[in-house]
Amino acid sequence: MTATADTALRVRVHHAIGEPLCYTSVLDMGRHWERLLRRARIPLAYSQGYHPHPRILFAAPLPVGYRATDELLDIVLDRPHSPAGVRALLLAQSPRGLEINEVEAVAPDAPVLQSLISDARYTIELWSPASEEDIRGALAAFESQTEVVRTRERKGRLQEYNLRELFSSLAYAHPEHLPLETEPRVHQHVLEAIARCGSRGSGRPEELIDALGVPYRSYRITRTGLIWSSDKEGAA
């Protein structure tokens, strides 16, 4: 049996992640998907070898605590199935915090998603006593610098990196004027950012918040989209 115009051997799942699933680790997220696909009776293809595993191809790991509105993963099937049928099966088994937006057919020999991603878009909601002017000024100061040195721990070692080069776009979107219930003078500010994402390194919005140096009480980060390398080159 071969794939037709109405079926596919590889499908791409566009999905959103909210609470409580957003607090799941990257490793556990993979396990969640494996269990979901088995419960949904999706006809999965498996890798070869002594320890076969389902061929699920994630675009980019979502850090713990981040929400997302359009994440991507590819599923390789062991026999052709309609994207609409796969979506219906997933919808019937999806846990709280997972929304299946769309399922589309992908060519079996298409490049893996991780090799195509270059950047990601983020919305940052920041609850802070700082004024809009203060936060705009902090953003401008960050963008005016060519180097903002930070350190991260990797494999038990501290490594320096330039946070500034990981963010290609920053903007103050708007104030929401939604104070925290416990602190009425703390208001919500909404920022938008485009940060590097993938094998060349990833910009973390929470590190940007710390680098801005403005006081804050809490924040919420949502990844709103992934940017393909080809899209970035076309926009250059």
Structural notes for this entry:
The chain is an alpha+beta fold and 236 residues long. It has two domains: 8-115, 2-Layer Sandwich (Alpha-Beta Plaits); 117-235, 2-Layer Sandwich (Alpha-Beta Plaits), CATH 3.30.70. Helix content is 22%, strand content 38%. It has helices at 26-39, 83-93, 132-144, 205-212, 229-235; strands at residues 8-17, 56-58, 67-81, 98-105, 117-128, 149-154, 157-162, 167-175, 187-196, 218-228. Strands 1, 2, 3, 4, 5, 8, 9 and 10 form an eight-stranded mixed sheet that branches. A two-stranded antiparallel sheet has the order 6-7. β2 (56-58) and β3 (67-81) form a beta hairpin. The relative contact order is 0.19. The mean pLDDT is 90.
The CATH architecture of the largest domain would be 2-Layer Sandwich
- What is the gyration radius calculated from CA atoms? 20 Å
List the uncertain runs: none
Q: Total helix count?
A: 5
- CATH C-level label of the largest domain: Alpha Beta
Q: What coarse outline follows from CA principal-axis ratios?
A: elongated
Helix content: 10-25%
H/E element sequence: EHEEHEEHEEEEHEH
How many structural domains in the coordinates?
2
**Percentage of β-strand residues:** 35-45%
Sheet of most strands: 8 strands, mixed
Please state the average pLDDT score. 90
- What is CATH's topology name of the largest domain? Alpha-Beta Plaits
Number of strands: 10
Q: What is the rounded distance between the termini? A: 43 Å
Which class best fits the helix and strand makeup? alpha+beta
